């Protein structure tokens, strides 16, 4: 088949084709331009409508802002009311102590505590049991002084009072330890009479709720007897030959408290609040003076009016009339003074609350190698005072008498290894020690053993080796180059940042706060001015604690929780050791105060979007929850709220949205407070519950929120 030739396109046809293509292209471009312009116009119109709507909402919010803030101010009157109740309770406590007349001193009164210390110093020849018995009162006085420093508002504490209380605490601590040393010496003088029939050496264990003493006296000096184990315990020592043949005694004094670590003070905090308060007090005085002047003028004015009454009225009637007329003025003056007093107290409480969540601008001083940073670590389980003591001369019975040589210098420590040691290390090897960890303390990681450096006044990690921890048996063994006070430490921030949290009301005017960390879930119940550990879960299993079921004041509760290893309370330096979700303190404080106000009728919860918004805003879940029973609602419907301290809004996104957006939920408005925000979707019953909430409960919830800082440390 012959090949067909392709028809050749003429020049005119080519031009026509190109012209058609150009027209088609121009048409498409025009259509695209028109479409783009239309879309842009639609977008601009939507933006205009949204902007107009936003402006209307802002204008509406601004219009009612003062009204809402005034209502919030009235609701927040519960905070100064709670502070007044605290003041009343402190005075009542002092009065109760005064009328008890039980012989115990008031530690806040310097004359009483100094007299107590002087009289106890004069008492001699006390047995260990007698000292332990007296130590209960001494420890109570120390704890009372510490609580005064923590619970007393800063404006009620002067610098001289703080110095006095710290001085009394240190003096009581030193005297108590001195008494334990003296009692140990008396016990060791009688070691020969208490010797074990099998070993020939003396062993003694004295146990109490606050102190446990283990003493072993080397009476036989048998070089083969180098393993010391206290009967019915795993506690003991492995001593070198040189000690096994020496006149020594080994003492382990386990104090379940820590009187070794220096007292932690925050002088700048005290000064700051003190300044605020002095200004407040000066303002009160000036207001009172102005008021009294005003009342005098008012009285004169009313008196002149009373003289214009008919002259025929008798003097008695005139006097009665004056009294009747001046009575409302006096009532008004008292009411005004009370209102001003509460306003100033409210401002002082506000300043004190803000100081609770302020971050320190600088990290603590640089620490040398092996020195423990006590802002980063916490000592748990008390202090183990390990000592090698020179065995004092033993008492000798003679013709019905007991002859006892008493050394003038008292109980002496045996120096090991010798200071002027030039021999090899093998001559003075480390001493192996095995201890029991306090049963009430929870270690979430293997504890670190540290020793006290008396010269530098700090804990150190050097001089300790062969550390081995048996978590199930709660036993720890290690070797020490020289004996002295040791303790076990744990990372202070081991539970931070938190994984999630929830705050919800319970029946009976209580609130339940749940904090979930990497290791545990802690549930805290709050009622009135008391807190209680409701439960602890470790590895999804309930864990019993000595604190469960015990109601305590918030500050006592926080101290007790820290001492058991459940530290969920950041300090001013914590942000240097934990990666936090920083929020401006003022915004954070306002959020906690208003959450506390609503806590009797609303539940709050952690939101993953809180980390996505900037430091000027916080985001959390909220829902109405009127507790008829304590069981939580299954799969509740939460609302997401964003709060900036001055504006609250309901977000369009939910917890499961793919991306974060600050878009306002449809059909909702801005409000200046959380109270008015939830009012839009709350029942009247819930709002009434909020308005009738107990002021002490609100204050306690707020204090716990400020202490745990859920919005920054989650």
Structure description:
This protein is of the alpha+beta class. Helix content is about 40%, strand content about 20%. It contains 13 helices and 23 strands. It has a 9-stranded antiparallel beta sheet with strand order 19-18-17-16-15-20-21-22-23. It has a 7-stranded antiparallel beta sheet with strand order 1-2-5-6-14-10-11, with helices on one face. Strand 17 (about 520-525) and strand 18 (about 530-540) form a beta hairpin. Helix 2 (about 80-100) crosses helix 8 (about 315-355). The protein is elongated, with a radius of gyration of 37 Å. The model is unreliable at about 265-295 and about 300-325 (pLDDT under 50).
What is the percent of helical residues? Answer: 40-55%
Shape estimate: elongated
**Number of DSSP strand runs:** 23
Radius of gyration: 37 Å
Q: Output the strand order for the largest sheet.
A: 19-18-17-16-15-20-21-22-23
Low-confidence stretches: 266-296, 298-326
Task: Note the gap between the termini.
Answer: 86 Å
What is the tally of helical segments? 13
Strand content: 15-25%
Mean pLDDT: 84
SS-based class = alpha+beta
Q: Characterize the largest beta sheet: strand count, sense, and whether it forms a barrel.
A: 9 strands, antiparallel
């Amino acid at each position: 088949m012959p090949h067909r030739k392709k028809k050749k396109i003429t020049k005119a046809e080519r031009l026509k084709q190109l012209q058609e293509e150009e027209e088609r292209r121009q048409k498409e471009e025009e259509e695209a331009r028109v479409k783009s312009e239309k879309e842009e116009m639609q977008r601009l119109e939507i933006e205009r409508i949204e902007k107009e709507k936003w402006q209307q909402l802002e204008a509406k919010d601004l219009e009612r802002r003062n009204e809402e803030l005034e209502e919030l101010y009235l609701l927040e009157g519960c905070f100064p009311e709670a502070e007044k109740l605290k003041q009343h309770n402190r005075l009542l406590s002092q009065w109760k102590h005064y009328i008890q007349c039980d012989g115990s001193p008031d530690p806040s009164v310097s004359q009483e505590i100094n007299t107590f210390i002087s009289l106890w110093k004069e008492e001699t020849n006390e047995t260990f049991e007698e000292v332990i018995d007296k130590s209960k009162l001494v420890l109570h006085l120390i704890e009372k002084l510490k609580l005064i420093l923590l619970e007393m508002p800063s404006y009620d504490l002067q610098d001289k009072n703080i110095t006095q209380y710290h001085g009394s605490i240190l003096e009581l601590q030193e005297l108590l330890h001195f008494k334990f040393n003296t009692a140990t010496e008396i016990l060791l003088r009688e070691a020969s009479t208490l010797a074990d029939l099998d070993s020939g050496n003396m062993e003694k264990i004295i146990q109490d709720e606050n102190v446990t003493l283990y003493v072993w006296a080397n009476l036989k000096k048998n070089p083969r007897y180098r393993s010391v184990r206290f009967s019915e315990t795993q506690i003991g020592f492995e001593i070198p030959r040189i000690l096994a043949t020496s006149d020594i005694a080994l003492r382990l004094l386990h104090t379940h408290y820590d009187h070794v670590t220096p007292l932690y003070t925050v002088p700048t905090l005290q000064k700051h609040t003190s300044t605020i308060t002095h200004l407040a007090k000066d303002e009160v005085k000036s207001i009172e003076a102005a008021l009294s002047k005003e009342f005098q003028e008012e009285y004169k004015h009313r008196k002149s009016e009373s003289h214009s009454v008919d002259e025929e009225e008798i003097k008695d009637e005139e006097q009665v009339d004056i009294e009747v007329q001046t009575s409302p003025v006096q009532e008004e003056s008292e009411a005004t003074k009370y209102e001003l007093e509460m306003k100033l107290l409210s401002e002082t409480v506000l300043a004190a609350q803000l100081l609770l969540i302020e971050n320190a601008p600088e990290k603590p001083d640089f620490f040398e190698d092996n020195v423990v940073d006590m802002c980063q670590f916490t000592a748990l389980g008390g202090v183990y005072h390990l000592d090698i003591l020179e065995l004092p001369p033993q008492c000798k019975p003679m013709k019905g008498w007991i002859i006892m040589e008493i050394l003038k210098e008292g109980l002496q420590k045996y120096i090991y290894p010798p200071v002027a040691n030039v021999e090899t290390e093998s001559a003075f090897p480390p001493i192996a020690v095995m201890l029991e960890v306090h049963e009430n303390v929870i270690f979430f990681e293997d504890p670190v053993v540290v020793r006290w450096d008396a010269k530098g006044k700090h804990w150190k990690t050097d001089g300790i080796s062969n550390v081995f921890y048996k978590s199930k048996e709660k036993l720890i063994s290690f070797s020490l180059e020289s004996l002295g006070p040791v303790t076990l430490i744990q990372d202070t921030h081991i539970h931070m940042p938190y994984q999630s949290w929830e705050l919800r009301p319970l029946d009976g005017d209580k609130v339940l706060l749940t904090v979930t960390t990497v290791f545990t879930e802690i549930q805290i119940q709050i009622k009135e001015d008391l807190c209680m550990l409701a439960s602890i879960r470790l590895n999804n299993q309930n864990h019993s604690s000595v604190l469960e079921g015990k109601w305590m004041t918030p500050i006592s509760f926080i101290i007790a929780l820290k001492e058991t290893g459940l530290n969920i309370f950041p300090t001013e330096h914590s942000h240097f050791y934990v990666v936090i979700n920083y929020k401006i303190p003022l915004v954070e404080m306002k959020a906690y105060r208003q959450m506390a106000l609503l806590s009797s009728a609303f539940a709050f919860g952690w939101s993953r979007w809180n980390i996505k918004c900037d430091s000027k805003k916080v985001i959390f879940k909220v829902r109405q929850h009127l507790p008829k029973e304590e069981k939580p609602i299954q799969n509740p419907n939460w609302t997401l709220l964003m709060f900036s301290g001055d504006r609250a809004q309901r977000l369009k996104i939910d917890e499961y949205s793919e991306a974060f957006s600050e878009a306002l939920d449809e059909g909702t408005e801005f409000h200046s407070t959380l109270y008015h925000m939830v009012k839009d979707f709350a029942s009247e019953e819930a709002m009434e519950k909020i308005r009738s909430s107990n002021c002490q409960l609100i204050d306690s919830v707020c204090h716990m929120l400020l202490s745990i800082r859920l919005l920054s440390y989650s």
